[in-house]
């Protein structure tokens, strides 16, 4: 899971609190009740605006948690020049940085696939060695065929991950879209030998929903994709429900262990 704060009123303190949650996503009392301290559970990354990159890197120093920054006119992808992007390029080359870029949806609507490829390839070049996640904004792409084609173009242009949504569209991650993107990833891997990751983002709020996505990934791509290096949820509210479910489980187990022997 990646934790995200991408609000207009974000502050350094909010980012630091998010980083603290990333370090310890589950309450310590639950960790102890469930006996899972040895698992060293933490999230994969946090995602912030450019302004808070240094704050996040400092707050996560000494951990393996990555920092992702949203770029290219997030969330609308209206950036018409690479000038702004290139001002930040030096930061991308730091070891724990990941970059989320948003495609220009108009290229998809107009069937301008070469233009889409060129745009993503330019972003990839600016990223240098930093891993680049490409956000398709699938809720805006109108058809599943457009989703499939945009997925393939993004992978051909150098995407490390393909991601459904910014989380800001009216419709974000849905299972039909996830199925199409996972199938595109599978076919691309079969044809090129290159494994690309997948990130559904937005609208996934419950542990039960997450199980549907995990099942889909296992069936379509196999267990090698069901790990943080290849699959992420972009759904910060999901963590709250997972913690509630663990609390129910821990409370139920504790009650069972301490039930009166004659009960």
What can you tell me about this protein's structure?
It contains eleven helices and seven strands. It has 263 residues and is α/β, with parallel strands linked by helices. It has one domain (2-257): TIM Barrel (Alpha-Beta Barrel), CATH 3.20.20.70. Strands 1-2-3-4-5-6-7 form a seven-stranded parallel sheet, with helices on one face. Helix 3 (53-59) links the parallel strand 2 and strand 3. Helix 8 runs parallel beside helix 9 (175-192) and helix 9 (175-192) runs parallel beside helix 10. It is globular. The termini are far apart. The model is unreliable at 80-84 (pLDDT under 50).
Briefly characterize the structure.
The chain has 263 residues and is an alpha/beta fold. It has helices spanning 12-23, 28-34, 53-59, 83-87, 89-92, 105-109, 113-127, 144-156, 175-192, 207-221, 236-257; strands at residues 2-4, 45-48, 66-71, 97-102, 131-135, 161-163, 197-199.
């Amino acid at each position: 899971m990646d934790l995200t704060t991408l609000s207009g009123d974000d502050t350094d303190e909010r980012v630091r609190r998010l980083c603290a949650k990333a370090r310890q996503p589950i309450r310590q009392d639950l960790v102890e009740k469930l006996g899972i301290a040895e698992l060293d559970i933490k999230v994969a990354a946090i995602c912030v605006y450019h302004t808070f990159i240094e704050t996040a890197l400092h707050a996560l120093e000494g951990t393996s948690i990555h920092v992702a920054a949203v770029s290219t006119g997030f969330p609308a992808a209206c950036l018409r020049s690479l000038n702004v992007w290139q001002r930040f390029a030096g930061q991308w080359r730091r070891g724990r940085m990941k970059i989320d870029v948003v495609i220009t949806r108009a290229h998809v609507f107009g069937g301008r696939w070469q233009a889409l490829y060129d745009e993503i390839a330019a972003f990839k070049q600016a990223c240098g060695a930093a891993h680049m996640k490409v956000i398709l904004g699938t809720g805006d792409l109108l058809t599943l065929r457009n989703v499939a084609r945009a997925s393939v173009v993004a992978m051909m242009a150098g995407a490390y991950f393909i991601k459904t949504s910014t989380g800001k569209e009216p419709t974000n991650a849905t299972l039909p879209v996830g199925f199409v993107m996972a199938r595109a990833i599978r076919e691309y891997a079969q044809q090129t030998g290159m494994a690309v990751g997948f990130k559904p983002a937005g609208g996934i709020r419950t542990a039960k929903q997450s199980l549907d996505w995990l099942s889909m990934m296992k069936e379509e791509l196999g267990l090698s994709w069901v790990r943080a290096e290849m699959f992420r949820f972009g759904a910060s509210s999901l963590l709250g429900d997972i913690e509630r479910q663990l609390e129910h489980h821990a409370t139920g187990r504790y009650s069972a262990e301490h039930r009166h022997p004659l009960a």
